[in-house]
Amino acid sequence: MRAPCLKLHLAPLAILAALACACICGCSPKGPMFPLDNPAPRADTHSYAKPEEWKMTRVFLDLDVDFHRKVLRGTALLDLEHGPGSPAAAVILDTRALTVEKAEWSASQGAKPGAEAETWSDAEFSLGPDDPILGAPLRIELPAEARAVRITYETSPGAVALQWLEPAQTAGKKQPFLFSQSQAIQARSWIPLQDSPGIRVTYGAKIRVPRPLRAVMSADTNPFAEDASGKAIDASTLEFRFDQPKPIPSYLIALAVGDLAFANLDPRGGRQGRTGVYAEPSVLPRAASEFADTEKMVESIEARFGPYRWGRYDLLILPPSFPFGGMENPCLTFATPTVIAGDKSLVSLVAHELAHSWSGNLVTNATWRDFWLNEGFTTYLERRILEDIYGKDRADMEAVLGYRTLLDEMKTLPEKDQILYVDLKGRDPDDGFTQVPYEKGALFLRTIEGAVGREKFDAFLRSYFDKYAFQSITTQDFLGELADAFFREDPRLGSKIPVLAWVTQPGIPEGAAIPSSPLLKHVAEAAAAFADGKTQAASVPFKRWSSLEQLHFLRSLPKGLDAARMKALDEAFGLTHSGNSEVAAEWLLMSVRNGYSPAYPRLESFLIEVGRRKFIKPLYEELVKTPEGRARALAIYAKARPGYHPMAVATVDGILQGKGK
User: Active site residue: 438, 464, 620, 644, which one?
Assistant: First the structure.
């Protein structure tokens, strides 16, 4: 039996199928086979920048990290090129809560390693009105001969992209920690720049930090180099230098500073290797063991979809307040410690962030409306990696759990947000960070693979990554490639895969390649037997299951369980004190829903210690459904809020204030 799915109305499907067939039979090959009614323009509605007038090509940062004042202070030097025709009178940059002290221009470019512009002249500048989503535009007046600008500035202590942690909030408890999170449009809160994924830049940096801390960035940094520990500036300060020669979107510029040690993950070792992990010293041994298969993952995806083009691939394990599971910063994935389970059961996150080195970092969504091009492709590639390394059963279980999560979330989403090609104009692009671009996008690609065959689809993807390497593209661009590769040659595909329905309509179209897993089917049967009272908790082989099977068991139980059955599950499997963050979060959610008070102390400690939005958002949402739960949520949040990232704070503030952000 096929798993249940959301269905579109038949009339729109029939119309779209007819349109697809008509295009196959009669459209001009020069016109788009799958035209979007309102294709996203190249101009990004989430940026003030006007790259058709002036476009940045390189950024060079020269910054001091001040933990006492919780600010970055220094300069950002931007190389520029002007568009066709006469240069505009000013360049417009994106900012958010920056204190701009000075702006200068030069007729020569100076953001390349070892180069300095010959002369600098003062430039008039002004900050426009502040928008709650976009921040404030910085206008810098420029003469026609300008080729670079340099801005002297300071960040705000509350910069939304930056989290400053006190020593007590770290694993080592001795040194402070700083990390950035620039996606989607938060790079502007720590760098004045053109903050759009459609504008790619190379970058370099000089970062000065207090001894004995170490700075790392999303650049190809050799951890075995002689200067890897930084250049001594004085008795109290170290300077680290970075260069990213590959053009990337601004949201991938990343910085972290802390008490960091490094371990090699590449069996070739030392300078011959290319994979490793940074973490606080007390975390490093567990991290190195957990992520030992990283090099195998790189080799797996290279064999199918082309070479890894970023030099090194390292991981940085952040403190638990990091609001996401991972962030695909080039050369250096930022990752939450909540994926260190001790049994590699949660390393799908590493596979996902690594896959972004092809889909997202190499080929990037041009606007946030095209976000599914990043995440749908990456989720699909992630499961291909898992299948190669850990087998088809593992990949199938991941796909089934992802599909179920998608269906659950779509029940709560308005139809406008169930669309891959989601309209985000006038909205925070974070509103588009749902399971739809991830799981519905991956399901779309899985469906295409099933229709054309894996061998052909792999060849298509490899060609796609080669053609658009280091470029930012739109949904319309991808649909054109898809049509040329498959649909123009095979008229039957138009009836099998309603492409425009997948991209522009809510729900899941008929004919989707719904994932299935025999292993999870048995788990669901065990959950039903327990729920019906046919078996006791002690007879369920829970501890022999993988964490994916354990999660499916818990999620397959009825929403409402009485105290006796909750207690039986806890006593049999030690769920309240589970060391697996995914299992613990699911159990705590069940405990809140069913009023299971023995789990409340762990609930409080979990919400205080962990800032990952995936976990804390549903827990707070469940708590506020009752007066008693709301009171508990407010009491816990008063303790937890100082340790949360600004993005997590905004999410929980919205929940507690009834805004549901």
Answer: 438
Q: Is 353 a catalytic residue?
A: yes
Paired with 339 in beta bridges are: none
Strands (E), 120-236: 121-122, 125-127, 136-141, 148-154, 162-165, 177-180, 200-210, 214-217, 231-234
Cα 82 from Cα 54, distance rounded (Å)? 4
| Cα–Cα distance for residue pair 60/411, rounded to 1 Å | 45
- Of 193, 220, 180, 187, give the one whose Cα is nearest residue 204: 220
Q: Does the active-site annotation cover 116?
A: no
- For the stretch 547-605, pLDDT in tens is 999 999 999 999 999 999 999 999 999 999 998 999 999 999 999 999 999 999 999 99
Q: Which of 264, 302, 314 is nearest to 389 (CA)?
A: 302
Q: Return the amino acid letter for 402.
A: G
Q: What is the pLDDT of residue 112?
A: 61
Selecting among 295, 353, 375, 622, the annotated active-site residue is 353
Distance CA 580, CA 290 (A): 13
Which domains are present in the chain? 10-31+358-504 (1.10.390.10), 49-258 (2.60.40.1730), 260-343 (3.30.2010.30), 518-656 (1.25.40.320)
